[in-house]
Amino acid sequence: METPRQTQTTTSPSAAPTVAQLPVRLRDLLKREVCLDLSRAHIEAALNEVERDAEEIKKTRPPFLFLQGKTLRSEFQTRENGAVESLSALSQGLQNVAAAQPRIRTWVEDDLETFLRDSQPAYQQGLATHRFGDDWQRALVRFDQRSVGLRTALGHVQAALGTVPRGIALASHTGAFECLMPARQWGALFDYELVFFNRVADTQRRSVSLGTDTLKRMPEHQFAALIARWARMEGEHVRRSIMELRAQLELAIMDARAIYVAEAALASGGGGRSFVYPTWEALRQLMRLEIDPNEVESVVAETEHMVTAAGG
Q1: Contact (CB, 8 A) for 136 and 263
Q2: Contact (CB, 8 A) for 126 and 19
Q3: Which of 26, 56, 64, 201 has the fewest CB atoms lying closer than 10 Å?
Q4: Sign of torsion, CA 9 15 16 22?
């Protein structure tokens, strides 16, 4: 789910959002993605030109250079060294940009998916009626990522409980409390997947074309709220609560994933279709019109630093 890809068939949104309608974080990430694309295109063009120049320099190398006059040797070596240094600098720049692009695209895709789910009824309707096979496949991948993230975060909380003294609430223990924050965040992300799943199920029930063959609603467990309560609880009570929550979580994952797989298979039967990818490309083109070329370099440098700080 890292990069957008070309699909065999795409469905153009009838009323695609504008850049101004995007949430602040998504707009910022999209700008960074486009700046990286612009920078990469510029670097690749410059690299091709320098490579051609380097080849020309090799062709003009005087025979028996060591026997030539000092001035001629110096001029040639200066040109040759300059080409080598330019190639090295451009190659490093291209490597840095290429390393940042997958992470930024992943962030953009995730935020854009949420934004379109919440703001574009046509997207929800298309998923409900199995029009967007590619997007159903992406939804399955996203659900799996949320599931793994929450499981892992709960494991970190459970491991931290061993360091909490008896009678101490987790909010009073720095290490354990720090583990609670990401667990709560993953819980909220997982909760959202179930809420949206139920919104699609409700849309299906209102669709005459599907008859009675519709999704069943999933229980909305509100895992984030349950995890938040652990901050006021002692370690032993949290340990028992984790066991109960994990049992509920595994049942929710098993039930929801089975339906996700079935829906994705139904939607894929009509070929690859997407609502998200053409919307994403349209927003990229709109963002290109808003970017000041003079700020691309600074935005790219800041973005590369941001990605590195996030663990590359």
Answers
A1: yes
A2: no
A3: 64
A4: negative
Residues 136, 141, 143, 144, Cα dihedral to 10°: 150
Average pLDDT over every residue of 280-299? 96
Residue 305 tokens read as 């630093």
- Please give the backbone phi and psi of residue 169, each rounded to the nearest 5 degrees, phi first: -75, 150
Whole-angstrom distance, CA of residue 270 vs CA of residue 14: 20
What is the distance in angstroms between the CA of the first residue and the CA of the last residue of the chain?
16
What are the pLDDT digits (tens) for 133-172? 999 999 999 999 999 999 999 999 999 999 999 989 999 9
d(CA 161, CA 260): 34
pLDDT at residue 68 tops 60: no
**Beta-ladder partners of 234:** 169
pTM over 0.85: no
Average pLDDT taken over every residue of the chain: 86
Q: Which neighbouring-strand residues pair with 169?
A: 234
- Structure-token pair, residue 76: 């040639």
| Spatial CA neighbour of 189 closest among 239, 242, 250, 146 | 146
pLDDT digits (tens, 9 = 90+) for 162-211: 999 998 999 999 999 999 999 999 999 999 999 999 999 999 888 765 55
Domain ranges of the chain: 121-274
